[in-house]
């Protein structure tokens, strides 16, 4: 295949699927190595895949009929290929002629010792060996695609909260009992008046009595008290939201002409698909 691409400018893009370089898996899904090359007829039709089987046998390459391959996007699967078969197959060296005898020998290893090569058809340009459709039919695939919603989440600042302190004032009234002294004068009339002895002149001996009166007064002051402790933290709340989007899906469109029956229109649902 690499020679066709290099010398004849074959284009393996678009509808073609180049399997060279893909990992190779054998019986029971065991990885055996890598697809290194593809061998084609003169017309370019792929007949064999050259598989390097280093996971089983060091530095060995074998040629496997393309009909045994199941091609996926990420790998090539040879579901029926066993280690014993690979052990008995001819080792391929790049550039060598993979002749008819070597092909028949490997077919006996793959199909059993009683394998008989088909008789050549002189009317056909295709070698008789390649008429074995089970072994040499090129894998064909039609992939049906569908769109699925992929949801990624990112974090953004939805808002902010500033927490601080401010002073609010209001007027409070406090009732306080304050005491004060008052002068109390008791006057007692004398019923039996008696004379004052001596020479007395009214107003000459005026006496003044001073009495200090005390009273209480209120001294109002303010004192701060702790009335509440505030701790600041964050917590995450989760709520479910529904997002709707239109997606497309490819379905198989089978057009029938005439009285024909098509097998396999309904896909086979496996236990894996149900999960």
The CATH superfamily of the domain at 2-141 bears the name Photosynthetic Reaction Center, subunit H, domain 2
Shape: rod-shaped
Residues in helix, %: 10-25%
Secondary-structure class: little secondary structure
Strand content: 5-15%
Q: What CATH first level of the domain at 2-141 would be assigned?
A: Alpha Beta
Q: Given the structure, what is the number of helices?
A: 5
Q: What is the H-and-E element order?
A: HEEEEEEHHHH
Number of E-type strands: 6
What is the annotated CATH architecture of the domain at 2-141?
Alpha-Beta Complex
CATH topology of the domain at 2-141: Photosynthetic Reaction Center, Chain H, domain 2
The stretches of 5 or more residues where confidence is low (pLDDT under 50) are: 3-16
Spatial separation of the terminal alpha carbons: 40 Å
Q: Which sequence of strands runs across the widest sheet?
A: 4-3-2-1-6-5
Q: Biggest sheet, open or closed, and with what strands and sense?
A: 6 strands, mixed
pLDDT averaged over residues: 81
Radius of gyration: 55 Å
Give a nutshell description of this structure.
This protein is mostly loops.
What key attributes describe this structure?
275 residues; single chain; Photosynthetic Reaction Center, Chain H, domain 2; 12% helix; little secondary structure; 6 strands
């Amino acid at each position: 295949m690499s020679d066709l691409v290099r010398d004849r400018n074959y284009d393996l893009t678009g509808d073609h699927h180049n399997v060279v370089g893909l990992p190779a898996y054998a019986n029971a899904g065991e990885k055996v190595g890598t697809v290194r090359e593809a061998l084609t007829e003169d017309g370019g039709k792929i007949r064999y895949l050259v598989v390097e089987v280093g996971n089983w046998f060091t530095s060995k390459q074998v040629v496997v009929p393309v009909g045994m391959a199941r091609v996926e996007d990420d790998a090539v699967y040879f579901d029926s290929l066993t280690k014993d078969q690979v052990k008995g197959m001819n080792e391929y060296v790049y550039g060598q002629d993979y002749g008819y005898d070597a092909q028949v020998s490997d077919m006996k290893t793959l199909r059993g010792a009683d394998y008989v090569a088909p008789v050549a058809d002189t009317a056909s340009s295709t070698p008789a060996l390649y008429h074995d459709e089970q072994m040499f039919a090129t894998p064909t695939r039609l992939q049906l695609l569908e769109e699925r919603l992929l949801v990624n989440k990112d974090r953004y600042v939805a808002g902010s909260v500033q927490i601080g302190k401010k002073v609010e004032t209001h007027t409070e009234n406090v009732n306080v009992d304050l005491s004060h002294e008052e002068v109390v004068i008791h006057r007692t009339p004398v019923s039996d008046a008696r004379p004052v002895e001596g020479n007395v002149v009214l107003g000459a001996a005026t006496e003044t009595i001073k009495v200090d009166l005390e009273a209480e007064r209120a001294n109002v002051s303010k004192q701060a008290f702790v009335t509440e402790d505030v701790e600041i933290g964050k917590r995450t709340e989760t709520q479910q939201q529904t997002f709707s989007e239109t997606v497309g899906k490819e379905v198989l469109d089978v057009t029938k002409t005439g009285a024909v029956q098509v097998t396999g229109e309904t896909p086979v649902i496996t236990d894996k698909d149900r999960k």
